[in-house]
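Take a look at this chain, tokens included, and explain the fold to me:
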Amino acid sequence: MKLELDHVVHFLNRHPIEAVNLLKNYGYHAVMGGRHENWGTHNSLFYNGLSYVEFLAIEDQHKANQTDNPLVQQLTKDIRNGEGVGQICLRTNNISVLKQTIRKRGFNTSEIFEGSRRREDGSVIRWKMLFILEKNFMPFPFFIEWEQTDEERLNELKKLRMITEDQENRSIKSVSYTVHNAEKAAKKWSKLFDVPIHNFSNSDEITAGIQIGGLEIVFVQPALKESSLYKVLQQRGERPFFVKFEPTLRKQGIELFGTRYQ
């Protein structure tokens, strides 16, 4: 099952243009993405290579409440606990085969969703999505297959000036989740993706991780209830809290609407 990180989804309780403006203040290029007309949401995008951060917000509350899209359903619930990254999406070039593979490994999936977004210039892009339907407090990643090839997408992003030359050569290296039990979380994801687990820990936290393509997923279990990470876990639940780029954005990191980026 060949997979790569496509994007991380950062839930916002404000207009996505605010993320564009804040990143601009730090010297980075982000753009408005557009509207998901059937789901009642809109977004802005921060591209680094073909991977990106999607800043997703509700535009039409009624439509968002009515949709059967699991990602939007999660957004409407999670945003009550605060802003921050809530999901990651992995890219595949054969979502139908992926669906069969996941089911053979003992996991329930949704049917394949058709997705589309109307850009600011009026053009429409399309894709397919697949979700895992397990009763798990920490949602498993979801999956995407784009209508265009990777090469076509990258060429179009350059043409539309949605990605700069500097950011084209940067990628997302790792995403860290805060969890109640790092070993248990890693075992579940290891089974899903059929990959080994690596463990390491220190006095403040217990950590386990897995590798999916070029992306490292790190599960961090706070060892002390007095730690700031434990407070994040109590507020937002088992969700991503840290995204690391290579090369790094800034050594000291950047705090963006409930998530730390480095």
In short: DSSP finds eight helices and 15 strands in the chain. The first strand starts at residue 4 and ends at 11. The chain has a mean pLDDT of 94. The chain has one domain: 4-261.
